[in-house]
Amino acid sequence: MRNKVLSAPYLFWMVLFTVVPLILVAYYALTGADGGFTLKNVSDVRQFSGVIFRSVWLAVIATLICLVMAYPLAYSMSRLRPQMQRVALLMVMLPMWINFLLRTYAWMTLLENTGLINQLLGLLGIGPLQLINTQGAVVLGMVYNYVPFMILPLYSVMTKIDQGLIHAAQDLGSNTLGVFVNVVLPLSMPGITTGITMVFVPAVSTFAISRMLGGGQNLMIGDLIELQFLGTSYNPNLGSAISMVLMVLVLLLMSAMNQYADEEKEGMII
Amino acid sequence: MKHLSRIYTGFCMFFLYLPIFVLIVFSFNESKSRAVFTGFSFKWYQALFQNDVILTALGNTLLIALISTLISTLIGVAAAIGINAMNRWLRGVVLNTTYMPIVNPEIVTGVSLSLLFVFMRQVLGLPIELGFMSLILAHVTFSTPYVILNVLPKLRQMDKNLYHAAMDLGCSPMQAVLRVVLPEIMPGIITGAFMAFTYSIDDFIISYFVSGPAVQTLPIVIYSMTRKKVSPEINALSTIIFLVVVGVLFISNIAQDRWAIETRKRLN
Amino acid sequence: MENYIISLRGIKVQFDDLPVLKGLDLDIRDEEFITLLGPSGCGKTTTLRIMAGFAEASEGDVFFEGVRINDLPPHKRNVNTIFQKYALFPHLNVYQNVEFGLKIKKIPAAERKVKVKEMLELVGLGGFEARDVNLLSGGQQQRVAIARALVNQPRVLLLDEPLGALDLKLRKEMQTELKRIQQSTGITFIYVTHDQEEALTMSDRVVVMKDGEILQIGTPQDIYNEPVNAFVADFIGESNIVPGVMRRDFLVEFANNAFRCVDKGFEPDQLVDVVIRPEDLRIVAADEAPLTGVVSSVTFKGVHYEMMVESAGHDWMVHSTQASEVGEFIGLTMSPYDIHIMERMEDDSLDWIEGESSASMEGGHAE
Lengths: 270, 268, 367
Known about the structure:
A: 13 helices, C: about 375 residues, Rossmann fold
């Protein structure tokens, strides 16, 4: 099979533009401005533990809201007639085709102090409320941008749940709750773990959403990294160290999800 | 139960489309206000088409998307054929590395590439400026995996004997790939190239880190416009993009339907 | 090497340290229809791929008309292949599929047209030129595959279980068809199958393979009537195989009885396998037979009844046009010519027979 040779250009590209850059991140994280080895950057990350904690916290909340919101929607979608399913699916995917900056900008206009929402509230005699530049706005932006990433994997596992299984469970005496707990929930587990990963990773690492809706007071890990590379406090060594922390966070989450998915599989065999 | 789920679905769609709807409505607003509709006007569309920064950025975006799609499709298709011929172990290693730009947070990919370009220029003295060159290199890097992951399943599904049959009938290995394998995996190539193109157009985070001050793509311009508080041209731009997307999806769906009907007819 | 078109010498193939072919020697005559027959995993397909050039031997040589072609790539060999499931090019229509090889060889369009038309007529697909190959029936696809290979006028046609995907009726038709095409074109056919009936019907010679080795080469009659060991006997048709002891020349003891036979040349008291075909056992009255037993089942098979008789600790399969009753006490007898004596095989091969013979019987039912 001489065909293997065909992958040579890509392998070269992959090593040069995927592997080497990641090695560089590690290299910069472990060296100082003078180029000598140091652990200073890594230990300096600790002083940002508040920001890191906030990022994880906001991302966790956004992920949970996405899950709670997407789950019933995905289930309802999967029970529609095929024709309607396609329409619903298209409607969920359509906003994803519009750049997330524009979608976030739309929320800026809605949430600002003189924005549409506060205008309406004003008619009711409430407010104006401080909606934009809050943590709540950041979470809302994340949920709005990333909820399709939760809906789609959930929907795709749920369409594979055989209606016959549900009837069988009802036939065997399960009530609605029982059907959900014993049939639908376990079978949709792979969709849940995929959805969690797909929402949490971009949420925890975002910088644009927090900047646009958080107003610069609610810094996240992404903002920190951006500041070290493009901002006023240029320090690629520290930025690399924070990037490493971010990668570790993501890896931890993904291995936890994999672990969970594996256990589920074993459980299903029994 | 049925009503409840209808109402809930409706509520979710309302949530998804409300901001977009508001953007569209206010793109026709006469005043700069984003909350009070003072009158119908196309003035922001006119402003948009006279805005050189946006038009240049649009040109850059399309050019970069075209070039990077072309390169990543070429590299990616060849790579997929090669990967398909690898043994299980090697294939595992290569595929796991291929997934990296997809699963890694985009900001990490952006940062790591920007470090690479700085390193290449400052330490190795290579003439890589931050601009077109770095943007294209970065876009090829994150879109090639999508090409590979779309083509590889097509190769797996393909009857391996088709390749052998071509050689059996006198094709050299290269001829066999061009005349038989490529036509067979064409649907995967097209999907992969389409994804590469859309990801390239849509990318903000990675481009943000590897673009210099000289060359800006549309998402980067949009970001800097949102930093200024009021810029109603964005509404106009969003509306146009939304209509284009709806149009493309509509046409591709109709095309799919037609194709499905045609196939059914031919089968019967 | 006169008249041998392909010769294999000491071919060894290994996949991941697992031997697939263990030093194969085979000579194939020009213009013959030869079948490689064996259970799956016996190395028959690998042998074919070695000849086509899709697989490489770790040791040994391949000769084409006396010239060593080990390093000749597939597209330069004067052989063509009919693949399992045909491997027709889905993006080309019938005409384009058949034309493919000629186009690669840069034959002028006008000549191509004549040849393709001629070949489609030969396989009975005249008028199908513009059809989409994906919408053809299995039998039609099969014919396109044959036309696509034969239009290149190869010296040798390799066929890898070509009829496996067809139903029984179509398979019978295609067997006759293939034989007719082979005889009218004079092309050497090398045919791979696990179906013994197919092998016996079509072949000039049959090569029985097992575990990467050739067990027997011969005409269908040779293979059926004089199997070299119990494995071949069992694989070709159905057999009763019981252990026995060769007391002396022309006398064998099995099932607690001594029988006259026509074999000689074994050591005195050598352990042997005794093979008796079901159709060679005759049912007689119990008091005049050396073997007696109770009929445990009777199955109607169309032409004959298949009965299982328990006797002397064995289940004997008997084919007869006359049915006995289940539970009836009967006698079994056979002529000395129908007792085949074979050297005892190692235990594991016998195990294999146990496992596989029932499977092949099921296969027989399905057909």
